[in-house]
Amino acid sequence: MDRRFFIKTASLSALASTIHLPACILDTGIPIIDTHQHLWDLDLIPLSWVSPPLDRSFITEDYLEAVKGQNVTKSIYMEVGAPAEYRDKETEWALELCKNPDNPTVGAVIAADPTAREFQSYMGKMAGNPYLKGIRYSFRTSEELLLPQVIGSIRFLGKIGLSFDLNLKPELLNIGGQLLDACPETRFVLNHCGNADPVAFLAEHDAVPRDSHHDADQWYRNIELLAQRDNVICKISGLVDNVPDYPLNASNLAPIINHCFEAFGSDRLLFAGDWPVCLRNMPLALWIETLKQVVASRSLVDQRKLFHDNAYSFYGLTD
Q1: CB half-sphere exposure, 114, CA atoms < 13 A
Q2: Which of 13, 89, 154, 218 is the most buried (most CB within 10 A)?
Q3: CA neighbours closer than 13 Å in the CB half-sphere of residue 21
């Protein structure tokens, strides 16, 4: 761990004070379910995309250290972009993690390719596994989103009670709505607030670290249109990952988070940590506390829905 990163993670209380987090916000007493927890062991599954500070293994012990004191009671494993030839091994590893009662990981969203002809037979073999909650696949083009094979595959997920995580660029959100319409019986999870880029929402007086990845107004409109479908729920996550070393705070992120609240409503939002990818900008504990600051003015009922209740219901969890 380099010195800069150590200093950044060494003291949550010091970091919290720099963004003026009121003491009452730091502990609401609400239990947290983290719906987007990455774990990986590079000795088992090599990952070509990792780079500092992510170029090492991140296992359960590391996660427990990252959430210490944050009242995270359960987590959902999220696939890690493993090479296709390692997907079966990753799935087996993740589902085994869920069986350990000492592990906060209680469910898994795995990688599978809905464009593949064997998709239904592959997923059908795992149907009924209580720890398997859904799959994720990142579409590369708008054409791929609406392939008949894709629509058939995702409709099948609905039939066997599994959800589909949508990881879309903002410009594909409107096409994503057509996929939701074609698969009305399948539950969708929009990842990372539709991959909103915080740079697009910075105030005029803020220093701009780079050009934004999309137009803010386009994102606002596309989120509103997507949220009109009642078979999609939105993860509040992934906002800090692509702006490394920039001092993001509650003020920077509030426009995105508040718009998701208004578009989806408090019943269709999930807290997600996106650890350890969030370490590109901030520790997981600081992301949790920053989000608490953004939603502090909302009712405790709505805060509890975001951090716990919606996930508990959506993933069919038990105590």
Answers
A1: 28
A2: 154
A3: 26
Number of domains in the chain: 1
What is the per-residue pLDDT for 319?
87
**Any residues with CB less than 8 A from the CB of 24 and at least 6 apart, and which?**
none
What per-residue confidence (pLDDT) applies to 102?
A: 87
pTM value surpassing 0.85 = yes
pLDDT of residue 22: 41
Rounded Cα distance, 54 and 188, in Å: 28
CATH number at residue 134: 3.20.20.140
In a domain, 319, yes or no: no
Q: Is the peptide bond before 198 cis (omega within 30 degrees of 0)?
A: no
First vs last C-alpha separation in the chain: 36
Domain that residue 170 falls in: 3-314
What sign does the CA torsion over 49, 51, 53, 59 have?
Answer: positive
Three-state SS at 62: helix
According to DSSP, residue 30 is labeled -
Residue 297: count other Cβ atoms within 10 Å of its Cβ. Answer: 9
Helix (H, G, I), strand (E, B) or coil at 190: strand
Which amino acid type is present at position 126? Answer: M
Asked if the structure places residue 76 within a domain, the reply is yes
Q: Among candidates 190, 114, 189, which has minimal Cα distance to 156?
A: 114
Q: Is residue 147 part of a domain?
A: yes
Can you say whether the dihedral through the CA atoms of 316, 65, 287, 28 is positive or negative? positive
Orientation angle between helical segments 173-182 and 216-227, nearest 10 degrees:
10
Q: Which residues of the chain have pLDDT under 50?
A: 1-25
84 membership: H or E segment, kind and range? none
pLDDT digits (tens, 9 = 90+) for 135-159: 999 998 899 999 999 999 999 999 9
What is the Cα–Cα distance from 283 to 65, expressed in whole angstroms?
A: 11
Asked if the structure places residue 153 within a domain, the reply is yes
